[in-house]
Every structure is written in structure tokens, then in C-alpha cells.
Fold each of these.
Amino acid sequence: MTDENYFLNNSLEQKFSKKKNILKNRKLLVVNTGSIKKKFVFQRLKQLGLHIIVLNREKNWAEPYVNEWILYDNPSHTEAIAAVEKYMTTHGRKGIEGIVTFWEDDVLLTSKLVDKLNLIGIPYQTGKRVRNKFLFREFCEQNGIPSPKHKLIRKESDIKKLKDEFVFPIVMKPVYGSSSAYVVKIHTIEELLDTFSYLRKNMAISTESALTDGLEVFVEEYIDGDEVDIDILLQNGKIKFYSISDNDLTIEPFFVETGQSIPSSLPKIDQDALIKQAEESLEKLGVQHGVIHFEAKSTRNGPVPIEINLRMGGDEVYSFVKGAWGTDLIESAVKIALGIYIPVSKLPVNPKKCLTGKYFLTTNSGILATCEVDKQIRKEPYLEELHLLKQIGDPILVPPEGYEYLGWVTVSGDNLNDAKDNLNDASKYISYNVVKFDTDSALGKTSRKNKFSSAVMNKNLLLKTAKIEHMRRLSSTNLHNLHIGVLESNSIYVNAENSLETTGKSIAKALIKRGYKATYVNQSNPFDSINELRNSNVDLVFNVCIDGNGPPYLQPNSSAMLDMLEIPYTGSDARASLLCKDKINVKKLLTYHNIPTPKWDYVYTMDDEMEAELKYPLIVKPANTDNSYGISNKSVVKNKKELQNQLQYVIEQLHHPALIEEFIEGDEYDVSIIGTDENDYQVMPLYRTIFKNLDSNYWPLYTYDAKLGTDSAYDKLIIQHPPKQLSRRLEALITEISLDTYAILDCFDYGLVEIRIDKDNNPYVLELNPNPSLEIGSVLVDSAKLLRMNYGDLLESIIISTIKRYKQSSSSFTTIPTTTISYGV
């Protein structure tokens, strides 16, 4: 249902006029696609026949509408401008004929490019003065434009001085930002302190991307009056068109917008005063060109500007203006940017139709549990637009946790009363409910000292749990809609092209090729990786830090970190990873469950005595490492003296407890397993290593040097994949023992069991790797090939196993829905 749009009477699929299309093939630079909510913008730009060049950090959903991309790696303006300049050196001055943005975040970047490329638009100094709301207030005050009393707040001590300077209520808001995000109405000094503390700690670009240019806040007097939006076409300093729409009352104290109507129902004298005020403000600011979204209040003392947006208004503004007056703001923005003359368009006495719309809101943050839209609504002649921005299972964060809504609906009528009646009628077709946390949860037991006290915890819990909920609701038909993070720590190898590669980057490339969105995250700096994962909005993480090539300490830690963040991930959890690294406890579990394993004992210090009666030769291993660390040809000992020497090496030099086993001299088998439970376990073709060709002074085992490939003596190993002349009985026995081991050690998604066969064909479990290497050329990857599974097939099998596992896990949310909320006026 994401971005599900119904355009009925006012469809964007309009037929072009038979007259010559003066915009065809004109080269337009669009700065930032914005979110998928802006899809209708790019649909219209494409219909206009433009050659669309987009400046963006990455290719995305807009690709079907874009002719060329200018990509840049860094969100800084310097990097973006450099990328455009590089494009211009290749394409020349005719490479870009005009520039626009429909995304608030990049108004200032667009202004800088206007200056740099000498294009039509808003100069940077003007843009900076307008977009910085505090500077705009200062400008108004200095130029005789009505402005509420205001003051910048940098620290708590600034607040104490306000008691005698301002009359409450007052409003605190960000210097930057858009819509009403982080705007709060305040009645007391105590509330002001609480609000400032909350905003200072929690204002974030991840919540409101328009804060990219700064996180400062200021306060101003509360202005009582009717709030309106004025949409203006400005060319060469002259207003060519304007339209005024009324905003419905907001929900305070967070000024949550509820809806709007067009045309305005204000008296003509008030509307005239508003447009006069807007014209004066824009002229004094030096704004000469553009589509302007001017927000103001009509008060008993006259109009007061609230803020000016130097781009087309968002969401429903385009369809409102087009439906009421027939003016196409997108087409007009393009013509202004390209220097194409626009005639003055005076509003007719009566609009083509009256429109009103409402946002789908919820009174509490939570998870969208149900959302039903009766298809009959499509047949209603009054329906103009229906946008649904969330899917079932998605979080919806409302103030103070976030600033989201489910979507909006717009309807029309012959007059405003008729339109509002139709909006009431539309409510019967749309219902949804948002589920809170279980009241028995920690969150439910939290008592709020003020409206912010548990907001951060609430938001984090909701976002985390929503990811798990998303996994539970995911079907196999929409796997490729997943955004997958790939977390690793530099497990480097040489790829087929003889160049350095990492396992994680190989996985990311394979997933992207298969149609997934993949984000690579390097965990070499854990703090940076945590922030990156939080901000990347990934649905699922491919955890490659547990890969045998990564630093050992990261193996359980990465799983624990992902558990803490409540981000779903592939592979075994921290508990299983820690257990499998603890060879002593693994041995105890295997012995308890009668899984055959070499006879063994262990010591922690040189003073400890071995209790078991073990027969030489023995092998001495560090008891809590993996990947054969600490194992060499000297690890196999034939007598007590050699045993003491090797124990001393492991305990005193490597600083690990020692595991001592009877040495099994036969062939070694690697058994790769994929799956979550016994109903879907898949055992890959076995991988056999034969040691008989090793030089006589080498024991038949995988040493650390053998696994690193640094000792050429191990080039004589015989690898059979699949094994030759293996009896079905022994193969079945190896498989059964491996599956039992995998289940006993509680491994998930994929793993690899190492087994030795003695001279009598008896199998013995050596150890289990809960998350074996997924490096191209590794045992697991090559085993999959034998089943005609390519790299992407293998990765997707692991993803499917992971999703199944999360679907079977328990939920933090109540299973009984809250009361259904039917949308109405």
C-alpha cells in the first residue's frame, strides 16, 4: 500500500495539448528526488518531455523518470557542487539549462548552484536569510514587516531570562526544518525547560531531514489567528499567480496539521491584505523567481508572515491548486527555471471546484495493525486523491516521538460545504488501527513526568519492534523490497579478478544484482557502525562479523549489538556464538547428549591435573578460540613431556585454557547446513579432506598456517567435493550426527560441523562453526554450487531462513487490536 495513489477526476495521466511542446528535451537539473511521496512530481516532469538530470546521493525509486544521474558520496554541499561541476566539464554550458528542487532539505544547495552556474533561481544569500527562521524574523523586524517577539536559545540560562521578557504562551521551534516538526506550544517556564532539554538531546536529521543545515532553536510569541498557505508564482519579481488555502486547526501543543481547504473562506479584504503582505515581504527579501509557499496568519491586527518556503508546497498542494484553478505548479516551476515567460493569471470569481482534505492521524505512536480501504471509494466522483504512506507492520511515530501520519485524502465539491460533506462521506470507506505496546511491558508501566519523559524510549522501542514485526509479516513474493544491511569487519580475500575484495562487499553486490537494496556497514569502528545502522533504516542485517575471517572478539559482540538494537539479522545469536567458541562447554553438551566426540579433558592452569585417562597421541588446543588459532604441527603430542610443553604454550603464552583430546588421525569432513528447524534443514554435499599425502613429519590436521595458506606443505592435501567412494551408511551417519549437533547447540540459518573419521569409519564431532565463511570459494559457497545454487541463491536461502525464524518468534505487541479508528472530519 506504500504510496498507493488514486487519481480519479484529476488524474496525472493528462493528454498533452496539440500545440508545440516548448519544454520537450530541455535539460533540467532537479536537486534531490526526496522520498517516494514526490513520485507524482517526477511523473509530471516526465510527461512534460523534459530531459531530467537528478543530483542525488544514490539512484532510487525515481530511476524510471530520470535521464541522467549526478551522484555524490558525501552529503556536504562542497561534494555535491564538485559533482555538478565535473558533469559540466563533460557536457558544457548547455548541459544544464535550468535548476529546481521540490525538497526542503536542498533549498540552500540549490541556491548555491544557482550562483555557481549563473542560473535562474534564488541566490544563496537570499535563500539563507529566508530558510533560517530566526534570521527571517530578524529581517522582518528590521524591515517593518510584522514579526512576533523572538529570541535565540543556546543554553538553559537563556531560558530563565524569558520569564520577564515574554507573555506566555510562547512557541519553541527549530531555526531550520519544515512542516511542524519539533514546534511546541509552551505555557510555563517549567515546560520550556523540559522542552528545551528534550529538543537539545533528541532533535535529529533522521527524524526531520530538513534540519541538515543546523539544530539551533528559538522561541517566539504565540500568534493567534487563522493560518493560511499562499502559493505564489514569481517571475522577474512580479507575482504571476497566487492562491490562498485555509489550514484547519492544528492539534496543540505540537501543531499537528489536520487538513486544509481551497479556496480560502476568509473575507476578501483579509485575503487582499495577505497577498499584499506576501508581495512586500518577497520584494524586500529580493526573491525574484520561483514557486513560493508562503505561510501566514490572518489576525485581528492584520497579516503576519510565519515562514516562507522557497519551493513548491508539499503533499497535496499541487493537486489543490490544479484542481481549484487549473494552474500547474510543477510546469510553472520548470518554465520559471528555464526563463520561459509566464503570463499573469488572475483568479476567476469562482474556482473550477472546491477541495478539502484531511490527514490520516493517530492519537498515539505504535504499529499499524490494520488498514482497510473499501474499493467502492474509487467510484465516488468526489475523490481527488488518496495517498497511503505506510504498510501494515510499519511504525507510526506521532509527537513527541516523531512527526508522521498514515497518509491523506482529498475530495472535491461544488462549494466548500459540499466538499466537507463529501469528506465526511469518504470516512466510511477508510479505517485503520494503530497498536500500542502491551500494558504489561516496561513502556506501559512508565509514568510520564511530562510529555517528553518517555518519548525517546517509546520511539526506540517502536522502531526496533517494527523491524521484527515487518519480518513476521513479510511474504516470499516481496522479498526484494527488503533493505538489507551487510555488517562486517574487513574479511579481505582476492577475488576472481585478482583484486582485493571483502566478503561483505561481495554479499552486498550479489544482493543488489538480485534486486535488493543493500547498504554496506563496516564494524571496524563499532560506535560509527551503530549510528550508521540506526540511521540507514535497514530491514535486515547480513551479519558477516561472525565470519571466521573477522576479529574473534567481534563474533559474539556483533550479534549482541544487533539484538540490543532489535534489528533482525542472519545467523546464530550471541549466545550460540559464545557457546561454540567455548570448546569445553561444547564438549560437555555433546557428551551429555551422547554425540560421539574424541575423548577429552581440560586444564586452566599448569597446576591443574588431567582426570581423564587419555591415550596418546593427544592434541592440545586453546579452549576458547576458533579458525585453528593456536594450532600447529606441535599441537599433537606423543608423550607427557611434549604435552607439558604444549600446555605451557597455550596457557602461559597464548593465555587460554587448554582442551586436550585424543587425536583422530583419519579424514576430515565439513558438513554445511542451512535452516532454522528440523522441518527445513538442508544439508549440503559433504566436503572431505584427505591428509595421506602430507610429509611424514606433518600430522594430518588443519593448522593455523594451513588455513591461512602460508605453508606450502599443505598444498598436498586431497580435497574431494563431493567425497568419492563414500558409503551411504557412513554418509547418513555423518549427516545425522551433524544435524543433531547443529540442533543441540541451537544454531540458526546456516552453520558448518567439522567431523573426523577414525580407521574403523566411526565419526567424531570436532567442533561447530555457527556462522561459517561466506567468502566466494569457501566450503559453504562451493557446496551450494554442487546443488546448482549460485551465490545469490545461497544468500537468499539464508534470508528466507532468517525471515521464517523471526516469523516464529514472539511479539512485543498485544495480539488483540485496539479499538479501530475510522477516519472522519
Amino acid sequence: MIKNKKHFVVMNIIYAIILVVVLIVNLIANYWGQALIQVFGYVGAKSVDNLTAGDSIYYASAYNEEDLRKAQHDLAHRIASEGSVLLRNENSTLPLASGATVTVFNEASTEWLINGTGSSAVGTGDYVYVTVKWSLEQAGFQVNETVWNWYRDNKISRGGGSTNGDWSINEASWETVTAAVGGESVYDGYKDVALVVIGRTGGEGSDLATSMAKHGGTAEESYLELTPEEISILAAVKSAGFEKVVVVINSANPIEMGFLSEYNVDACLWVGPTGAYGLEALGHVLAGNENPSGHMTDTLVYDIFSSAAMQNFGNTRYVNESGVAYGNAYNYVTYNEGIYVGYRYYETRYEDYVMGTANVGDYVYGEEVAFPFGYGLSYTTFEWSNYQMSESDGIISVNVDVTNTGSVAGKDVVQVYFQSPYTDYDKANAVEKAAVELVAFAKTSQLAPGGTETVTVTFSVADMKAYDYTTAKTYIMDDGNYYITAGTDSHNALNNILETKGYSVEGTTSMVNTYTVDSFLTLNTDEATGTAITNQFDDVTAAGANYLTRQNWAMMDNNGLSYSTGTVEVEGVTYPSRYAESTLIANIDTKNWEASGRPAEVDNNNDIVVNQGKGLELITLMGVDYNDPRWEELLEEVKISEMHTMWNKGGYTTSVIESINKPIAASTDGPAGLAMFMSGWGCFNYCTEYLLACTWNDDLAYEMGELVGEDALHSNIVGWYAPAMNLHRTPFGGRCFEYFSEDPTLSGVLGSAICDAAVSKGMITYIKHFALNDQDTNRNSISTWANEQSIRELYLSPFEITIKTSDCNGIMSSYNNIGYRTAKGCYALLTAVLRNEWGFDGIVLTDLATSSGEANDMSLAAGVDLQLTTGINSLSTTKENRIRNALAQATKRVCYNVVSSSAMNGIVGGAGIVSSGTPTYIIMLAVLDVLALAALIFAEILTLRKCRVEAPVLTDEQQKARRKRNIIKIIVTIVIIAIVLVVAIMYINSQMIGESVFDFIFG
């Protein structure tokens, strides 16, 4: 009997609150389980380093930890050496004399960029000793310590990043630094070389500033031109008595290049973000111990805003007819430049100028372009000869003899370009043709002085096709002559062709041949799958948009590409206008199964067979073809709840499916190596994709992919959110460091090499971001509009090349909308093109996902297999057959790729290396629950004792009976609390993934 009822009630209310808190902690931990796994890891997990002799090892490491690190270190050095681009070298300024004295200027030298910010950031490791000063001294140079130490000790953040977009540049002027270090006399004894470092960074989530008005500069200045302080250094060093002025540009974004000639710069070396250890190579390159053989992957110009794409870039929001802006979710960009991105614009307009084409406008190539796409010098010279071209069974081969005619060893790059006919048909049907397009390339081996190598480059005749989105609505090849040339860069290649066509330019006709197409061709069937190819993006092309054409270049000079005002009054899609009618806003807002554009006839509404319990396991299907009927038998073993859980909780993992013994398969971010930003853990810090691309060496790309795969084997990682395949559409893209190039062919070839290598080590590579994710401004809410020719020839092309020429087995969709549909909810993109046309059987993963309900239905309908979320983003229901069957197909694709991965190491009908451990957070949670439960029971016993009425004296038998009753009460209390806790967790969890409790527990 209770004598102090008030105290008893109050204490039990407190205990109930504690119980609820424990319950909430369990629910939160369950919801964010995948994130907690990434932060805290596993207890007892195996890796290739501790698998036993009895374990099955399907992917074995070729390295121990020490040898792996040596191999990575060596590769980082070689990539940085080969990726350094020599842009200028007046009077053989470089290489520098042995033992030269060097004064290093600019804070950028002490803030050397190893990568950008965001998902590509990798753990720092022990690379901090690698500085510009250290690199120079290792190569034998003497560095002015006083000046170096001043810059080192007066660091100011250079800005940038994925959160604040602060692009301030805090460099000191010549007057400031000279006064601070004690006057010009401090330079005495270190005047052989003034080494001026120019640095520009980039970051996920924010594009670079087109105006510096909010970042310490003026409205007329941009982040990609030199600051007054940087200019003051260049303007002063020659008059201060420095014998040589060398500029090192450490950036992945093109910057304005007029300063080189304006301020008498003797030599300029471009070095992209190097990763942790690549900076070691800088001193050796400047000393001539290593010969730079990099070539630019972007066009470098004098006016950064001369790019055609720059007329439609940045922060543009839809407004209503009254001029009132809609909310943050309603932004747009229109790719009015069409195919004329980067060198495709500059070179094509140049050709039309040379040929005297009407409407070319006021255009002088030499006043626009400082260094063409593909440009790069060497410390030696090369001579090309014996150019030959042949065709057999649709494959064209180009052979060129490359001879080193200089005095030091070096490598060269043979770039092959083509020009297709620009016919009356093209002009009448809005088919645009660039003057030259890169179609293939190859790098020589290291050639000794006098050495010769025959370089062979091959490509398909079909690679020269164009897309006609208005009439044929498929790929075409015009009848006529296709010029094929080997060039040192895009401009040299075009001049070769123009010279061959009879125009007086500096070209080499012996480096050109032609391939003739006798009659107009339509290439309307995919060679790999046999699927018909036709328009899929009519509602993205946006009828009425004013696309740039070779027939009227002057429209760009008159700002004719900008859609800042006006309403397009045409039937059909009229969305590129700034003024958005309610229909467009409604379409953007609509998120459901039908909104994906999925045809109703492809839905499978048949009943689905699940949870059969026949004992089939995933491991038994290793090596089984994707279309084998045994996959359907395996799917019949899986519960709907298991399918749903894996689909909606796929961030940084693919979850366990116990019914078929599918192991967990952990994934990480990072094109620059394996990176987990939530835990701060990372493996080796590789160079950026941009620097890798500047090597023009797919063998180095393959080596990088292999070593990333080795990191994965030693770290229990299976999935890698990389490589990144988007283009440098404009110079201001915040993630240019993370992407290869402005050219789709170069990007696709290097992406293919990385994927092939990483997959050979058991990885799943999720190439990203699919697609048209070429700016970070408003990336979560922007509607991207483009015509289908540019979509297919430029923005889908790197992905298509990689998928069709490698074992790529994963892809990540992008944040942006494709037209008015979100990319992850676009059936045309993720299924009609990716799966049906290209035959992709890999996993489709979203970018970071936070949606739920019908918005997720839209993604599933479009073809998504996993959502990148560490929480739970459920479908609206799993009761509909069309949803269940789509989930089953997503499960099949995940399982098909996981069973061929390193996640199966150690499995012979048992747990794999990643799932063999217990998540640390589960152990922590269990300890918390046990302690909380014990504390509550103990507290309740004390409360009962304190509040009960004094009991009468009992006999021994009565006391024994009472103790027995108390034990039973305690046991019952424990059981009840445990049952309430477990059932509550399971109920709420089941509701999160759309199942009844019965289905959740029993299948």
C-alpha cells in the first residue's frame, strides 16, 4: 500500500520522461544509423589486412600499407609533373639555373591549393611539410627566408568554400610587403628569380564571384582577374632588379591572361590543385629535373566574360507578370549558347571570320584567346611527320611519327580533331557544327633527344555524328568531306584544316586527311543496345529559346542570348523566359509518380512474390548474367520492407538484406580520393581531376583509379562517389577543380580509365553529377534549359563515353532540374537514355536527398535505385504493385553490382568483410539502454520502498513468498518496459518506411 502518493506520482512521471527520452534517443539513432556508422565505424570488422586463410578473397590487395603509400606518393609526384602546363617561356627562362636564388611573392604561395572545398576534401595526413619553399629547396634553389616567413606568419584566409561563398583575395601590395620586411635591401642576394604565385580556389555550393564588390574589390572586378595588389608585385619586380620573373598559377579555373605580356613576365607555369603531395614536383619542374608535358583543358582568354555561356550564368530567379520574384525554389538557367562552349565557340567564330562568313561580327581571335584549348609547351621541341589515316569496319586510325628534336627528354600529346560539313540542311534545321571537335588523343612515352615514336589514335566513324533535334530527331551524318587532323591544340588543328581548304593561315596540310560520307545518314539506333534513338528532351529544349547559331554570331554581341526580359508566346513549352506563368510553377511543384514522365505502359502492376524463405543467397549469383532468370528467383526471397529500407536509406552504404545474406557495402565521397566529411576520416589525398586532365594521360588516370581501389580494400570501402564528369561550361564554375575539362571527349576518356581501374579492385564507382550540373549557384533549385543537341553532344557525352567504354557500375544524379523535372525524378534521363539507350545496368544513386512521400515516388518511377540519405526518406506507400515491382528492380540492380564487388570478400554463405563487424553505435546504444533500464528499475524499487506503508511483521514463509512476488514483479516490469521500448521503436520505424507493424516484423 502506498502512503506518500504525491511523491510516488511525481517520481514515476520523472521515470516516464526518462523512458521517453531513451526511446527518442533510440529512434534518432535508428533514423541516422548510416551516418553514425560512418562516424563511429564497426567493432570487429574485417578488411583485406586481417582476412584469414579460410576466408574467400575475391579481390586481394597487391600492396601492404607501406608499399601502397610509396606507390601513391610516387603517382602524386608524376601526375603533378606531367600535369604542369608551360604557357610561356621567353628566352628559355625555364628551367632555372642550379642553385638560383629565389624570392617568392604572394600569400598564395603559403596557401597552396591541394583541392577545393566540399565533398572532394580528403583527410590531410602528414603532408604539411610540403610547401613551395620546401619544394624549391629540395630542387637545390635558395629561398629568401625573410620574405617567405613574413607571408607565412601573416596568413589571411583567401576565402571561398561551400558555405559562405566569400571570395575575398587578401594579397599584400609591393609597397606593403617591402615595408613590412624592412625595405628593398631584403631582396639583395635573392634576385635571380622573382617567383610570383597566383592562386584561385573553388568550392562546392558556391560559384566564383563575377563581381568583387562584396569581397574587397570593385563591381567591375571579378575573382578571376588579378587584384591591384597582385599587379603591383608584377609591375615592380623588374624595376627592382630581379633578373627573371616567373609566374606560377595555382588554380583550376581559367583566369584572365593579359597580364603576362603587359607586365613582362618571362615564364608562366600553370599548376592545378595538386593534392597533398603533388607540390613536391614544382621545384623539380622549375629546375628542369622533370620536363612539364601538360596541356590546357580549357581555353584561356583575355576577357573572362567573352565566353558565350557567360551571358546566361549565375543567379536568375523566375518572376511573375508583375515582376515579383517567386521563392528560392524557382531559379533557372538557359544554355542559349547551344554547343558553343569553350573552344567550340572561339574556334568556330574564328573560322567563320577567316572564311568571310556573313554576320560574324567584330571578332579578332588574337585579341580574344591567349592560349587555345590543348595548348602546352615543353623544355624540348618535337617534330611530327608521316601522318597517315585509314579506315576499316567503321574504325578510323591516325598514325603520326613524333620525334624529339631538342636536347632533353620529354613527352608530347597528339590531339586528333575533326570537322564535319556544315550544310544547307544543317542551317535550315538548326543543326549546329563546331569548326573542330576533339575526337581522340594519345600521349607519347618519354622520348630521349632524337627519339621517335609512332603514335596511333583510333576512333569510330560514328563519333563524328551530330544530333538533329528539330527534324530527323536523332543522330545524323551529313554527306560530304570530314576533315581529320592531328594538332598540338585546337587552334593549330583548325589552321591545318583551313590551310587545306585554301585559306592563308599558319597550318600544315600534311597533317590533314578527309573521310567522305557519300549520302546523308541517320544513326537512329544505339550500336550497343539496338534501341531506337530519338528526342527525349523536347520539354527541356524550351520552344522559342534564342539559341546561338553560326548564321548570326552578332546576336551574342548584342546580348541576344540573354533572357532577362520578355515573354515567349508560342504553343508548347515557353519556359526560358524570365516571366513564369502559373503552369510552369505548378509543373516544378508537382512531385509524384506520373510527374517523372514515366509512360504508364512500362509500369508493372502484377502481384509480386516475396519472402519465400527458400534459402537462396546472393553469393550464389556471383558472375551470373543480369538477364538470367535466377535473379528473379533471388528477388522472391527478399521482403518488401528490406527492399524499401535499402532504397530509402542508401547514403554512404547499401544496407544488409538478411533474407539473402547480402552484406553491407560502405561508400564514401571524393573525386580526390576516399573522403568521409562527416567523420573527418580519409585515405590518400590525390590531385584534383583538373590537374589529372592536364596530363592528357589516361594511363595515369588508370593508375590513380587502381590506387584508390587499393585504399578501398584496406579501408572496408566499396562505393566511391566519383569520378565527377560535368563540364567547365563557364570559367566561374565553383567545382571546376572537381571536373576534368570544357571538352566531353577528354572528360569521358579519363573517367573511363579511372572507373575501369577502380572497378578492377572491387569498387562501385558512382560517376557524377548526372546531368547538366555545371554551376553551383542555386544548384538545389535551378531549372536547366537546353536544346537536345547540346544536351547529348556535350553534357551527356562524358557519361556515355565512360559507361560504354568501361565497367562503370554506378551513377549519381544531380540536384538541379532538367527543365521543370528534378534530375533524380526525370525518367527520360535516368531510364529512357541511361538504361534503355545505353544499356546501363549499374546503380543509380541520388545526390543528397531529403524528400519523402510522393517526391520519392517520382524518383523511383524515374529509375533511382538508392537515395543518398543517412536518415529515412520513405515512399508514400509500398502497397501498390507498380511501386513494389519498381523496388524489386532497384534491389536487383544493387545486388547485381554488389555481388561483383569487394563487399563479398570473406563470404561463402556467411557475413562479408564490412558486415562482419557490429556497428559501434549499436553497442553504445545497447549499453545506454541497459544502464537506463537498470537505473529505472533500481529507482522504482527505491521509490516503492520509500512510499509504502510500514508492513506488519511477517513469518519466514510470508517473507519468502513476498520476495518471490517482488522478483516476479521486477521481471514483469523489465519485460513490459522492454516490450514497450521495442514495439514503439519498431512501430515508428515501420511507419517511416511505409509498412504495417505486422509486415515490418513478419515480412
Amino acid sequence: MNPRLSILLLICALLCPLAVADDAGDLKALFDAEWEHTMETSPTWASELGDRRWNDRWPDVSLAALERENAHQQQVLTQLAAIRREALSPADRLNYDMFRVQYETELESYHFGRQYIPLDQRGGIQTADELGDALRFETVKDYEDWIARLRGFGVYMDQTIALMREGMRRGLVQPKVTMQRLPGQIDKQLVPAPEQNPFFKPLEHMAASIGDEDRARLTASAKEAITGSVRPAFVRFQRFFLVEYFPACLDGIGAWRWPDGEATYSFLARMFTTTTLTPKEIHEIGLREVVRIRGEMEKVKVQAGFAGTLPEFFEFLRHDPRFYCANEQQLLSEYRATAKRIDPTLVKLFRTLPRIPYGVEPVPARTAPDTSAAYYRPLAADGSRAGTFFVNTYQPGTRPRWEMMTLTLHESVPGHHLQIALAQEQGALPRFRQHAHYTAYIEGWGLYAESLGEELGLYDDPYSKFGELTFEMWRAVRLVVDTGMHAFHWDRDRAIAYFRENAPRSELDIVNEVDRYISWPGQALAYKIGQLKIKELRARAQQQLGAGFDVKEFHDVVLSGGSMPLSLLEQRVDEWLKTAGGGKHP
């Protein structure tokens, strides 16, 4: 080599700092950029989380926008692959893995066309007004943003109709038996006076800080937007639904009827359970669990002093007046009292509790006849809205007292509220993990939380204990009937009969539940599969640690990482066990 060139290279090496790869920094930058992208392209979710920057928008669900998002996700995975996983810390490797799983799953979901079925009888654009219940309305701009959303609703509706038409073209449509509930929901949006429209609700009781002049102006603008945009959009939707969509819906039920239906349902089973279990394997797990739980039910029936058969005990629980409230308000009051009873017991099993509280409210009357017994709405990420446990008070004569404790444990604490609120309070986690939603983890935890009622001393009579078993049976039955209908060609009547034979739920609940599984294939599989995994991990920890097992520490390990696929949860618990429960969380 030329001596002068060697000297120049040496000088350059001394004076020019070497470029050092910063894989951790690149990963964080990718997470931050993608979270910002997600909020901007999912403005209604951003609003629910308390990010108000896009409060004047609906999401762009046009076919072109969805295709762009699919291409974007492919590009993000390319960027992720350029980051050296082996150069990351253990915590960042878990972040990397979860991020990759999330985007790979989204791409696979797009391939199977889930985006072309944007609604069911439990919710969709026909219930879009419920977004208003989750938002803050404190300033003039809050109301102006809502009115801007109302003015833009027609575009959102037309994009949704285009999606559904594409679904029709591809043969990806809902069954008639569940879609026959939609016309009544649409009718509730077609009231004659704009102030009666559900979208007007945020304007009914404006914040005290809004002056009279602004109050009058905003009210007039909202009425104009409803009359000029929202109502005409629903008129178009009603016509489309009745004339085009409903006639094109499936005459029978089952995902197997869709093009490539068998592969689609297998994907949905994997996606919702975050496992590699096949529909056949899940079906067989369900059958075994049904037999096991029936045996437990027989024991509790004897403890209750009932001399008849188990089916006769079911009928007794379904119809005896002592188990039912007289009216909706009494039912809601008793649920609120049940929640207050649970709260002070949590310290027995949990070291870390969320700071944000939760409330107990009735399910909106518009959707109550068509939805489940209860559900949870998460808190806003900025702490501006507490979590909400929604109780279905429709037809209180079908809502037994013996299910109150287990349902409250599942939906509030130590179930969904405790788990989701804690995840959002984990400031060290990337935001996509704070708000991750893996159904098998979240609903598996909710079902596991029901079983904690016994350790907390809350199942203090045979009927409440039977309520817990009834709910566990309900989730075991789901494994059988969901796979039965979508993989093994069961009809709706067979699914309803199997449910009725094995769980003392009311006829209304049974029919609503089966219809839910029909229109949401695979989702119901997550509960029992997730619960079984968490129980398996707890049993493993108890066996390995013996007297050193601390249930509070175990719960910290399971909860402090937020929602994650079951395989990664198992990996997390196993890494903790390597430290012999020494208080170090992976």
C-alpha cells in the first residue's frame, strides 16, 4: 500500500468517529413511529385512549386505504428485520418478538379478508354513536370535533358499504340468522328529530363551562350535521342492507361455508388462542372439560341439598324467583354492591393494584337485547376516564343472582379492570405493549380471575359457587360449539341444545351467545384456552417452588408484562422460575 495512503487512512480513523450500530435505539424509534402512525390511522381508538389530536375524524376504511396499510405493515416488518435481535437486551428481545407477531398476524388476517366483514349484530357502524360515551366533552373544541365527525359520517358510511360489497363479491358475508337483528338497530338511528338521534347525546348535557352563545351555536350545528349527514347515511345504509346485503348473506352458518373457509377458521383459532392448536384438538379439550366440570357441578348440587338430577337443578336455578331481581335498577344496585364487596379482599392475592378506579353502568338500551350479560370498557390512557363494567339489565328476570359474583370478578377486579389498568400503568413498556390485546391472555386472565373468588372467600354459598362452575362450563361449551359450528358443520339448533344441556344459563343468554359465536368465529375459543394455560403455569410454579411459592409474586410476573401471546407468557414465567422466584421479573 502507498505509504501516503496509509497515513491518510490512519488520520481518518483517528479523527472520524466510527458509526456504531444502535439496534436498541432503532427499535425504540420504530416503536414510537408506528405508535404515532397507529393513532393517526385509528382516530377513534386514539380518542378512546384520550389522545384528542384526531377527534374530528373517523378512520379511513376505504379499500385503497386498507391496501396502503397492508403494504405499510409489510415495510415495517422489513425495517424490523434489519434490527439485530441478538444485539438487544432480554427485555427488548421480548418487545421485538411481540411486535413481529402483531404485524405478522395483521398481514395474515388481511390475507384471509377479515376486513370485509366490518360488523355483526353486537356492534359496527350501526352503533358508532357509542363512541361518544367514551369521550370527554369539556371544551368548545371537544364539541366542535364531535360535530366535525358527524359531518364526515357519510364518507365513513359509504366506505363501510364499499367494504361490505367487496365482501359480498368474495363470498365473505355474515349468516342471515344473525344479520336479521340489524334492521332493528338501524331503525334506532332513523328517529325523525335530530335531538332524538343517539349521536346527539353528547349535546344533551353540555359542560357548565360552555357559554350560552356557544351552547346555542353548537346545538344548531349538531342538529344540522345529523340532519344533513348522519341520517341520510343511515337511510343509504338501510337501503343497501335490506336490498343488497341481507339477501346475499349465508343461509346456513359456519366459517367452513366461506371460500377457503377451513383454512380461514384454522387461522382464526390460532390467532385468538395464540397457540398452534387445531380446531379438532380444541374441540376435544372442550369435550374433556365439559365432563370434568359436570362432575364438579354434581358435587355442588348435593351441597345445596337438591335431590333431583343435574338437569332438574338447572331448571330450578333458571326459574326460582328467589334468584332474580324485580327490576333493572335493583339488578344494577346489587351488581354495584357486589363490586364493592370484592375490592377490599384483593390484597390477599395481589401485591400490585391499579391506581385508576372503575365504575358499574348498564349496557346501552339500544344494544342490550342483542348482546351478552356484561362487558368491560377500558379506561382512557390519560386517566381522564375510569374503566367501566357494563351490566346488561335488559329483562332482569333472565339475570340470576347466582352469576353476579363470578361475572363481576371477571369483568372488573381481579379480572379485566385490574389486568388492563395495570398494563397501562407499566411506564417502562412500549405503548404498543401497554395497550396490546391478545384475547387468550386477556380473557384467559378474566376466567382465571373467576376461580380466585374461592381463595378470596367470596363464594360463600353453594349457589354462588355453582355460578362459578356455570361460567367455567360456559367457556368449555364454547370450545365445543364454536368448533362444532365452524369446523364440523353443526347447525345452530344443535349448538343451542348442547349449551342448554350443559349450563343453566337463561334461554336469552344461550341464544345470544350462540349467535355471537356464529358471527365472530374463533374469538370464544380464547377464554378457556387462556385460563388453562395460566392455571398450568401456576401449578408448575407451585410444584417447582414448593413452600417458596408466593401467589402475589406469581401474579406480578403474569400481569406486569401486559397482554402477550400465551407462548411468550410461558417463556416469561419459566425465566422467572429460573431465579427460584427471587423477585426478579424477566
